[in-house]
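1st attempt posting a full record on here, be nice pls
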Amino acid sequence: MNLWSKLAGIILRNKIIFIFLILGTTTFFVFQWKYVKVSYSQNSILPKENPYVIEYNQFKNRFGNDNNMVLIGVKDSSLFTAKKINAWNQLAKKIKDFPQIAQVVSIENLKVLQKDTLNQKFALAEFHQGTIKSDQEAFLLKKRLFDSLPFYENIVYNKKSGAVQTVFSLKKDIVNTKKRVDFIVNQIKPLVDNFSKEQNLDVHTSGLLYIKSLDAVTLKNEIPLFLGLTLLVTGLIILFFFRTGSPLILSFLIVGIGVMWTFGIMGTLRYQISILTAIIPPLVIIIGVPNAVFLINKYQQEIQKHGNQARSLQRVISKTGNAILMTNLTTAIGFGTFVIVNNRLLREFGIVASLSIFSIFILSILLIPIVYSYRKIPKEKHLKHLNKTWINKFIDKLIKIIRKNQKQIFGVSVLLIIISMIGIFKIEVSGSILSDLPKNTVFYKDIKFFEKEFGGILPLEFVIDTKRKKGAYKLSTLKRMEKLRENIEDIPELSKPISLVELSKYAKQAFYKNNPKYYQLPSTHEKNFILPFIKNSDANGNLLKSYTDSTRQYLRLTTFMKDIETDDMEKVEQYLEMKKDKIFPKDKFNVMMTGKARLFLKGTHYLINNLAWSLGLAILLIAIFISWMFGWSWKMSVIALIPNLLPLLITAGLMGFLGIPLKPSTILIFSIAYGISVDDTIHYLAKLRQELQHNQWHIKRSVYKALKETGISMFYTSVILFAGFLTFLMSSYGGTKALGGLISFTLLVAMFSNLLLLPALVLFVDDYFKNKKTFKKPEIEIFPEDSNDEL
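the predicted structure (as tokens):
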């Protein structure tokens, strides 16, 4: 008696105990749900010890967060009428009064520099006070703002288009919490929407914080949507296969408990729901349903053969236990390799997905025999689906193709490989920080508004270390910064920079009675009598806080980048690196480029490289696993790998031809798809070994018999997986859509590869399989030796 036969006896003799164990485990996991929260943090893709992250944290410690701003903008000539400009200013006041707000920059509270000759300092005065009483006054306000305050260009207004914006920042203690989302979604957004409606203005709201907040709400709403969709699609397929409701109910019971366990696992491990872990519950359904279909089908086949319920239940476990275990194990390996990636989100995704797959295996192998042991023996009408002629004809057609067109199968495979390789060379490693966000939403259109009118929303920062205290006051340093600013302004993907240079120009303008023609850097002579005004103003008004540190050794220059592809970002980065090194000699200055835009660029390449390693590891581990399963036969591993690598190559080639870039959201599909598709290969090769023994090593008869008996199962499970992953196309996220569409396509190709190419390969190397040593007793039996039943 093998291990699984013993286990079958234990399960069937102790049904009540196992039922209570499942109920107890489920209850424990349900109590862990309270710890499952949606992730609101904005952690970097890069690990904490990465030098780019260290530089960014140094920047934040010195100058504060560059990523806590929300923008409200409007482009409408009617804004500068008395009614609407007063309403616009009132909106800014309401925002400023919220306790969650750290700072607001708007027309309403705009400050202007005024020269105080008596005290030799610059004083901050209000740009305007009180309400605007007439449209003429509003027009004059606009003219004064646009014509006399160049310092605020691109900060508050766009002179060319007439667009205006209000910028406010949130207090740092709520930036990475649920309070931020609640505040933005439930208070800021309704306030702005009501203003837009009341004033009949097209108001745009954006900023990374705003986007991530609405993103979190969308993510939270999509979880039940996908659970419902995957249940609906897989349920319809089950009904089509079995034609009765009981397999559907039992399958849903298993995957339902599996989903509850998944959320429980996340709660137990204190993991938050991210854009990756959010897809695990639907994955549990997609992967769990084929398990249930496989076992239920086996039970009904046994009933049809001999009608003995007790023997049928025992054989469901003893004859399919290893098969289900091995296929779930290879799938778990595909997900588990993400654990090696030094990224918290991917590591958590890999851990939860792997544990969830093992959970659904345990639930399937326990609940199906137990539940059916309490039910009556299926009647003949419940078993009619086992005699479907169309599926048998389909398999017979495949066998006929293999028998007569073996060379054509190889030829088509080689041709597909050549075409795919051409496509692979067309793939670009790209993507953008916002590329996977929903394109059909208002907030995505708002991003494009701010890119067009104000240059972008992704901060790119420069920190200039002058290597001496008060080095920021040197005019030669400011002139170097002016050169860097000019180079940045020449790049269309970047906005107008903001730095101490702009403040120095504004100081000179203020010194000359705010005449805008003096908005320029002071000369060496002018510096001597303007600088004391700036220093004295700094002590009172804290003018320099955002642009230099307290020692005046470090200077900050801020620009904003449009949401461009990473290869374009890389070109911009290389150009700026070259320019900054030329403008600031390394023996006199240390210049660091950082900010969210650069972190994303470095993080994308880091993640792609790590995911490529995880795919390689998945292929290696599964190859070793298959070799071990078949008595350490490396030739078996090679034969198993070929039909499963072909779909990956075809998918990669398709991405190249369709212009789908290689980015974090697309490269991870290869590890997942490979781990799932190899299951069919294991089933077929295990059954082939068994058939060879039963048919005295007659290769052709065994190949066709194994295909006939495993082909139906391969077709059914592939259809379920294909349709299940296809539901991901309903997602708002580009990354989730790519995941679903590409995995579905890969699995469809893998099905035909395993049904046609794999048997053809076995026939091609038939001398190898005729040798009984090839199939020496394996390390583990997938199917018991006495089993010659259909899958």
